[in-house]
Structures are given as structure tokens and as C-alpha cells.
Amino acid sequence: MSQSTTDPRLLRAPPKRKLRLSWADERVRGIVWQVVVVGIVGVIVWWLWSNTVHNLEVRRIATGFGFLEREAGLPIAESLIEYSPTDTYLRALTVGLLNTLKVAVVGILLATILGTLIGIARLSRNWLLSKLAALYVEVIRDLPLLLQLLFWYAILQGLPGPRQALNPVEGVFLSNRGLKLPWIEWQDAHSFALLAFILGAVATWLYRRQALAKQMRDGQPRRIWPVALGAMVALPVAVWAAMGAPWTVDWPALRGFNFRGGLTMSPEYFALLLGLVLYTAGFIAEIVRAGILAVPQGQWEAAQALGLHPGQVLRQIVLPQALRVIVPPMTSQYLNITKNSSLAVAIGYQDIVSIANTTLNQTGQAIEGIAIIMLVYLTISLSISLFMNWYNAKIALVER
Amino acid sequence: MSDLTLTTAAATSPEAAPRTPPASQIGLRGWLRANLFSSWINTAVTLVLAYLIIRWTIGFIEWGVINAIWSVPENQTQACRDLRGVGACWAVITEKHRFILFGTYPYEEHWRPALVCLLFVGLYVVSAMRRFWRWELALVWVATLAVIGVLMWGGVLGLSYVPQERWGGLPITLILATFGLAFAFPLAILVALGRRSKLPAIKALCVLYVELIRGVPLISLLFMASVMFPLFLPEGMNIDKLLRAQIAIILFAGAYLAEVVRGGLQALPKGQYEAADALGLGYWQKTGFIILPQALRLVIPPLVNTFIGFFKDTSLVLIIGIFDLLTAGKTAIIEPAWQGFGIEVYLTVGAIYFVFCFAMSKYSQDLEAELNRHRRR
Description:
heterodimer, A: mainly alpha, three-stranded antiparallel beta sheet, 12 helices, globular, B: mainly alpha, flat, AA_ABC_transptr_permease_3TM (chain A), membrane (chain A), transport (chain A), transmembrane helix (chain A), cell membrane (chain A)
């Protein structure tokens, strides 16, 4: 970056020195050190590897991933795809992976919302609200997550049975069988409406980009909300209405000893989600608070002095600057939620770790089982990191 | 001179005498107005929150104190069961507190793990005091850990021998956390230095280690320790479960601490490195005398935060069946008579974890304020 100011004579490469075979030569020392360290690590790895191979032979365990094709015979309580115990291990592991993703994605979403609210509450001018938020953050962060999960699970298990289920709102039932919510009966019309919404969102985004580019040229602000309303609300509603506007709500109702219909959240899933969201929200709240505090007071004042209204100040001045501070630590919190979802195994939610663990107990394929767990998490971690790095680069401060 | 007379005149004139602000702006009333009732929306928030806090507090006191049962005779828990949801059954704690704290350690020898816990706490307190931050502290650590080993195992000095399978509860949590830290920290420093090294092979090894460990959950490492380590070792050689979990925790903590230490190394101005080079110091002299003392000082607060996280994470050994504090709590309510009293037990165990973590977090905040004092004007 300072090349233009450097004396061109200095740009010439330094004269090549001959490699002297002496301890005094830095490069020789470097090479020797590397050979020694790599050698030691190599010997240790080789030793562990040969032990493993020998032990596997003694115990007659065949290595390889052939077992994935065998019948699993393990029952899975909740699954996003069709599954029965006669399916293969591969299918069982896929179910586990989807269950992990289900809790991670929903958890990330809810924890971000709750954490942001608590972070803002902590900065509130209302003394009671800010102290309460501070108390929440302090307590939740000082208790082990596993303890919290066991605690929520114990509370859910202590709830009355379906016949005496708590019914706080019409159609919502909370019992020791989990949480029951009303849900609309999904039909083709809903799928098409959802598709229309996604297309509308993409169209709005493209329009917004163009409008901003035009604004950069002529300085005239353009309204985006009419287009957004048309493409993201009117279009899906129109599609839905054109297909007959089906609208049947599936209310959960007590039949015999359990509930029928509606959307079910098992106690395991509910406890895991609750624990993960409440725990991570405590950390996210601190990140959001630090991000907002990192924007100097002068920025608010300058924006107000320019005549921007409060919404604009927040959206166009403060948030872009706060996000720069918020995004990197937020990435690691998202990674943490995903990794912490593996604690599911302690309360019996069947995620990838739980199913891989059962698999390795049933088949004795310990190395393959652990390798699958690690590979899955490394892939998820890497994808989240790459996405957040891309987003971070996008919002980073562009200097000259 | 005329200025002076003017000022005196102004000061003596009754209109200019300092007046107290209106009563609504100062004192308790002013504070309440500014912080709780500054606008109608703020007033509404305050009233709703106050109502909820009072209701929940009263509810909790009714459940936890007024309606609670503190002890029952001879495992007769029917009285507790009748009160489910109305009153807490602290009798489970009265009955099981020794088991939760010390696991299956022989009952009449419980003073030994109790003393061990006190020794650990003493060690933490001494290590936290800045006036003891000298190299002799390492000797204190070695000596204390040796005494702890003698107390736990026994077999010498007239103490009866207690095999490791019978250890449990709080001492296991403290052992996992303390030994984990004592070994992970030096490892972390080496790895952090390696990652900043100019030697490509060493740097690659360190990056691989850190990223691999940080990319997977601790549970997968603990599973690895419990099912794969036995395969790694030559036939006939076996290390026990606690030690295997301890190794997994050290490897895990090492990677996270290494990243914190690396942050400190990067935050140090380049001039420090160059000045050390200019003095003709070798790599280890430069690192030991110039770089590390400054870099570590910079990262003490995040280090303490990592320690807290790591103290909490030792509870994960529950999943591979090691008898730490949380496992002891969970096991205490397996007995049919005491089943279903999880909330009381987890609240108690949580309180113990909270005391340790809260103390560390307060300490880290105070230390941060103290270390940053020179930066503030």
C-alpha cells in the first residue's frame, strides 16, 4: 500500500546469501526445528495409528463405511422425512442430521430476536428494565448449558398429562407430551403462495438495488415499500386466492390419552430449543449492547443535525456501524448454537450425535461413528463461517 | 478589578444566590422521575414490570420457603408428592447433599474431599491476587495439587486408600477444571506462538489443530476419549476414564485458549518485537522476557471469560458417565423415592456453579477496570 512512496532502490531484492550449514544461520535453525517438530508429531501419529490397526485386528472389527448400507433397526421418535427402523443406517443418520439442523436453524433465529431485544432492553433508560435485563444476562451466562437443559426438561416432565394439560391460549396445550399448537392444513395452494413470496422477495431486492443505484446518480430517493407490498404481500395472496383460498386450521384436540392434530413439539425438542435460545440470547444480548455502545454519541447527534428522522438515523447511520462490531462475535455464537445442539443427547432428542452414538454402540464402528460426527460439524461450522465472512466483508468499512 | 466587584455584587444580590432546583428534579423524587416515570410509555413499562416482579417473587417465596418441606423421615416422600407444584421439596437436598457434593466417596472420609474443595478455592484466591503473580506461584500450584492428590487417594500418612472410581461430585468438577487449565494454558501458549511462527510446517500444524478442535463440539471429543482412546493405545495398556476425559478437556481448552493468547500477541505493537530483535535477544529470550509478559497481560479479561466457559463445560462429562457435580445431582434423583424432584436438585447444583462463575466474572470485570486505568484520563 505504501509502494508509491518507497524508494525504488529499496524494492530490489536483498542479495541472496548462501545457505551455510551452521547453527548460526537462521534458516538452517528453522529447517531443523520444523523437521524435529513434524518428526515428533509424525511418530506419535504413526504410533497411535499402528496401535489402532492392531487393536482392530485383535477385536475383529472391520473398518470402512459398509455398515451404512445395513438395516439400522433403531427407532427414531421424530423425523422430518419418512423413516422406519427397517431403513439403513445412512437414512437414520440423515434423519439425525436434519434434526440437528432443525434445532440449530430455529434456535439461531429465535436467539437472535430474543438476544437483540434483551440487549436493547439493557440500554433502556428505564432503570427497572435495564437492571432486569442485566440480571438475566448475568445469571444465564453463569450456569452451565447442560444444567439448564436438564432443568427445563425436568420442568416439562413435571407438567400434568394430556388430560390436565395447561391451556394458556385457545388451541395451545402444554403437557408432559410436549407443546401442541394449531396449524393450517398444508395444501398445494400454500406451497405456491410461499413460492410467490420468495420470488416477490427476490424481485423486491433487485428493485431496491436498482433504485439505490439510480439514487446514487440523481440524488432522488425512490419509494421501495409499494413494490415490496405488491410483490411480497399482494402477489402471494393473489396466488393463494386464485387457487381457491383454502384455509382449514388443524386444531389439536384430546382423543383418548393423547392429542391429535396440530403442530407438535416433543418435550425433548422443546426443552432443547428453550435451553439453547435462552442461554445463547444472554450472550447475543451482550454483543448487541457492545455493538450499539461502540457507535459514538456524536454519530447520533450528527445524523439528527442533518435532519434525518429517528428511523433513518437508526437504519442508515447507527445500524451499519454497529453491525461491523456485532457480526464477527455473532458468527461464533451461531457456531456455538450449532455445536451446543449436540447436548441433545443428554435429554434424549435424537440429533446426529445421539444417532451416531447409538450406531457406533450397535455396530462397534467407533472410528467411523466419531468421524461422521466430526465431519458433519466441521462442514456446518465451515459453511456458517464462510457465509458470515462473506456478509462481514460486505458490510465492512470501505476506506478509500 | 471591576470584574471582581461585579462578581461579588452578583453573589451578594438575593436573585443571584444559588437556588436549589425544584424538588421534582433532585433527590428520590427526581431520580424516580428520570429513571422510571420519564414518559407515559416508561411509566407503563415500569408498572407492568413491577407487577410481574412482585408476583413472581411472591410466587417463588411461597413455593420455595412458605410451602416448602425441609425434611422427611426415612425416605417417606409422599408428603412432598402431595405438594407437587405448590411447595418445594428441599428434603431431597437435606437427604442427598453429601452425595451430591462428594458422590460415592466413603462417608466417614468426607472431610478429605471437603478439604480438597477448600484447598482449590484457596488456590484460586491466591492466584487471583496480583501481588502473588510471581514465578513462585507455580511452586504453590505444584505443592497444592500434590497435597490434593494425597488427600483424594490416601494410602499414605495413615489415610485409607480410596480408589478413583469412588471419587465424585464437586471435587471431580474442580479437578477437571483446574488440571485442565494448568495443562491447557502452557499448551495454548505454545500453539499460539506456533501459529504466529514464520516456519510454514509448524504454523500449518498449529492452524490444523486449532481449527479442527474449534470446529467440532466438545461432546464429540469426549466420545472420542471414551470410545476411541482405548483403540489408540497398545494392547494391555489402559488409562482410566477420568484421565481420558481430562485429556480431551485439555486438548479442547488448549485450542480455545490459544486463540485468546494469539489475540494478545497480535495486539502487541510491532515495535516491541523489533526492539527485542535490536537488543540481540534470541527467539526464546525475546518471547519469554519481552513479548509474553505484555501479551498475556493484555488478554487477562478474555482469558478469565474463557476459564468461566470452560468451567461450565466440564459438566459435559455427564454424557460419558463421569461422576462430576452435575452427574451426582442427576444420579441423586434416580432412586424411586426421590424421582421427580429434579427442579430442587438442579436449582441447588446451579447455585454452586453460579457462585464459582459469578466470582470469576466479577473478578474479571474488576481486573479489566484496574488494568485499563492508565488508559483513562
